[in-house]
Specification:
alpha/beta; TIM Barrel; Double Stranded RNA Binding Domain; eight-stranded parallel β-barrel; three-stranded antiparallel sheet; 40% helix
């Protein structure tokens, strides 16, 4: 089996995605992480397009990469200008990358309508731009933009554009599904034709507009392509680019292709999450291989089966990509879910222990009220420990009051909360203001408890979600509140349900504080 070369364009094509933007320092950090993963090429940007990309190519030269080659991206020369006089081509050379990748037009429609030149002139543009770069840069890759659409419209001309690139002795010709609408069966058939005419190594660059980017990339490899372009997490314009987080494990584990090592593959999930974090985005929970839900099991039958033989409901061992099997607790759960979850939290439960059945019944009762524990595993652990009688009572809340006051029509309401807590034998009565009633309650709780437990200052509230449960009662409906909290060592979710949103929030807040205190106790 031939080696497949991995070309990452997260820092260029990935940043064209809505909501994705990286600072130069972020791009350098991502490049180092991609290098650690074993990526062969890292496309840093288009040096002629903006100051940020120019700064990246300058700064990345100061960083020692162990494996990856840095690629600069650009286009063929402009019409009526020779390559040595074309500013875009000159900027690519001046950036001093290891590799230069340029794109050219392969679709006759684009040549006529976008470039407004003759088909023959476009072939010259491609050939002399690449020939010039081959003289000045170590390695040159040609991206045949819109190749599959171009081939479908005018196959002979599309192939001629590839021949123009091949005659310039480029190192790789990449077939691009720029509009992302090609189907795997089309990609396979077209590549078979291309291979008969072109002897230069071939690459693939696909977009996900038809939800086939990963499939198209893998089909291309199956048909002889040796270079695959994509982005981490599938970031990219419109519906995104081919997702390397799915392509890499498929190549390595399903197709037996050499690309990165097994040891590097175990860092895939961590890299995926790091890049989400730097992009300030919530990780895709249901993402294949690396998502939180990729190996999450909810039905009791599934859980019982995976305990005996994981492959019954898992297509690979999650550890191979740095993920883990997760057992979710819900009203679908059987006793096996409870036991696996207890083991995960280092809680000693026995399958014949009546407490196990008690916990199971309690979960079903709570979920019937509207609780859900999939995103609130901290609340579930507290529930187990309470049932076992092993949860220390760190504090108790005697009562609380929340007041929202709106004094003038054009002013925002002000919120104030008062709480009474008991710690040991001491009662603390505290008030605090906040940005809304929940924030005021959170501030008052912390103010009362921080003098007893100073490390609560480390705890942050990261996310707060409210879901009105469908009960047909309008404003009297039940409300579920999910809170994500965390400190410097991790994050945890808690849940509360009530027909009163403040009470539901209070339940989730109290669990979050209890869990923080429990974690700190266990750590010491």
């Amino acid at each position: 089996m031939s080696r497949v070369w991995l070309y990452d364009t997260t820092l260029r094509d990935g940043t064209q995605a809505e909501d994705v933007s990286f600072l130069v320092a972020d791009k350098i950090r991502i490049a180092q992480k991609l290098d650690d993963l074993g990526i062969d090429y890292i496309e840093g940007g288009w040096p002629g397009s903006n100051p940020k990309d120019i700064a990246f190519f300058k700064d990345v030269r100061k960083v020692k990469l162990n494996h990856a080659r840095i690629a600069a991206f650009g286009s063929t020369r402009r019409a009526k200008v020779t390559p040595d006089k074309d500013n875009n081509i000159r900027t690519l050379v001046q950036a001093e990358p290891d590799t230069v990748t340029i794109f050219g037009k392969t679709w006759d429609f684009h040549v006529r309508e976008a470039l407004r030149i003759s088909l023959e002139e476009n072939l010259e543009l491609i050939n002399d731009s690449l020939a010039y770069l081959k003289e000045h840069v170590g390695e040159v890759i040609y991206d045949a933009e819109h190749f599959f659409d171009g081939y479908k419209a005018n196959p002979e001309y599309a192939l001629k554009t590839l021949e123009a690139a091949a005659q310039a002795n480029v190192d790789c010709i990449v077939l691009c599904d720029t509009n992302g609408g090609s189907m795997p069966f089309e990609v396979a058939e077209i590549i078979k034709v291309v291979k008969k005419r072109i002897k230069t190594p071939l690459g693939i660059h696909t977009h996900n507009d038809g939800e086939c980017a990963v499939a198209n990339s893998l089909v291309a490899v199956e048909n002889g392509v040796v270079h695959v372009q994509g982005t981490i997490n599938g970031f990219g314009e419109r519906c995104g680019n081919a997702n390397l987080c799915s392509i890499i494990p498929a190549l390595r584990l399903k197709m037996g292709r050499e690309c990165i090592t097994d040891e590097q593959l175990r860092n895939l999930r961590q890299l995926s999450r790091t890049i989400y974090e730097l992009a300030n985005m919530v990780p895709g929970k249901h993402q294949a291989y690396v998502g939180n839900s990729a190996f999450a099991h909810k039905g009791g039958v599934h859980v019982s089966a995976i305990q005996r033989h994981p492959e019954t409901y898992e297509h690979i061992r999650p550890e191979k990509v740095g993920n883990v099997t997760r057992v979710l607790v819900s009203d679908l759960s059987g006793r096996s879910n409870i036991l696996v979850k207890a083991e995960e939290f280092n809680v000693n439960l026995d399958s014949k222990d009546p407490v196990t059945l008690e916990i199971l019944e309690k979960i079903k009762e709570l979920e019937n009220q509207g609780f859900q524990f999939e995103g609130a595993e901290a609340s579930f652990e507290l529930l187990m420990r309470r049932a076992l009688g092993t949860l220390r009572s760190f504090f108790s809340v005697i009562g609380f009051r929340v007041i929202d006051t709106k004094r003038h029509e054009d002013e925002m309401p002000s919120s104030e909360a008062t709480v009474q807590v008991k710690v040991g034998g001491k009662i603390e009565h505290t008030a605090a203001e906040g940005n809304g009633p929940v924030n005021a309650l959170d501030n008052a709780m912390r103010k009362a408890l921080e003098q007893f437990y100073p490390h609560l200052k480390e705890m942050k509230l990261y996310d707060y979600k409210v879901r009105v449960l469908p009960a047909g009662k309008g404003t009297a409906s039940m409300t579920r509140v999910l809170i994500e909290s965390g400190d410097k060592t991790g994050r945890w979710g808690t849940v509360g349900v009530s027909d009163n949103i403040i009470d539901a929030s209070y339940q989730a807040l109290i669990d979050a504080i209890h869990y923080k205190l429990l974690r700190d106790q266990d750590a010491h």
